[in-house]
Amino acid sequence: MNTLTWKDVIHFATVGSPAPDGRVEKPEEEWKALLDPETFRITRLKGTERAFSGEHCSSHEAGKYNCICCGTPLFDSTIKFESGTGWPSFTLPIQENAIKYEKDISYGMTRVEVMCNTCDAHLGHIFPDGPAPSGLRYCINSESIDLEKVQV
Question: Does 139 qualify as catalytic in the annotation?
Answer without folding.
Answer: yes
